[in-house]
Amino acid sequence: MELTWYGHSTWSVEVADTRLLIDPFFDNPKTSLSPTDVERPDFVLLTHGHADHIANVGAFPDATVVATPELASYIEAEHGNETVGMNLGGTVAAGEAFVTMHRADHTNGINTGYEIGSAGMPAGFVISDAEPTRKSDDETTAFYHAGDTGLMTEMRDVIAPFLEPDAAAIPIGDHFTMGPEQAAVAVDWLDVEDAFPMHYDTFPPIEQDAEAFAREVKAVGSDADVHVLDGDETFEL
């Protein structure tokens, strides 16, 4: 599984020959790329409807969009993409990947003006190269994109023991999501081997020292390796 961070919450995940793009928003200071510069995704996954997560969906008209039914319907009407509307707790096959949607603690108006109302529950995704089952499988690789969220016990009680992510991308920006301290607790609860900070340094309210997050992860006793990626950097999981 290959992960590429394009800044903010925008990630590309490659599972075999399937490319998934999460929360496309390229108007951020961590990336030097525009949407037309990246390889075309097969699927676009949307955690929620805020503009800094759906801004560039229209640049990928051939991708199938996976989101809550409310948000999927909005994107289909707005941009014409084929969509898969799913909901919390569900798993869908996306090419050679399996995508499980889990709740995130956040709000979910569509676009930052909140003018259209709710797009359903905000979400995070666990992307795996095998279908999740209750039989633990060391050969399966799984990546958790937490979306925009605060700290929640479901990370410890549901996501870690049942979905078993190997790595997690966690928001650390504070103000709109967790800050570094609570994000470090999330890493510990998730019991992942690799952790990546995201959703920081995009706007003044969420400017953060990502190395402080790495120190907080060690301070809570987690053995996770924290990788502070540069924008457009790729990591092989």
Describe it for me?
It is a single chain. The chain has 237 residues and is α/β, with parallel strands linked by helices. It has a single domain, classed as Metallo-beta-lactamase, Chain A (4-Layer Sandwich). 19% of the residues lie in helices and 26% in strands. The protein has five helices and 14 strands. A seven-stranded mixed sheet has the order 6-5-4-3-2-1-14, covered by helices on one side. The protein has a seven-stranded mixed sheet with strand order 7-8-9-10-11-12-13. Strand 2 (11-15) and strand 3 form a beta hairpin. The chain is globular and about 45 Å long. The N and C termini lie close together (5 Å). The mean pLDDT is 95.
Which runs of at least 5 residues are low in confidence (pLDDT < 50)? Answer: none
In the CATH hierarchy, the third-tier topology is known as Metallo-beta-lactamase, Chain A
**How many helix segments?**
5
Which architecture would the CATH scheme give at its second level? 4-Layer Sandwich
- CATH-assigned homologous superfamily: Ribonuclease Z/Hydroxyacylglutathione hydrolase-like
Biggest sheet strand order reads 6-5-4-3-2-1-14
The CATH C-level class name:
Alpha Beta
> In what range is the share of β-strand residues?
25-35%
Helix share bin: 10-25%
Mean pLDDT: 95
- Anisotropy-based shape: globular
Distance between the termini: 5 Å
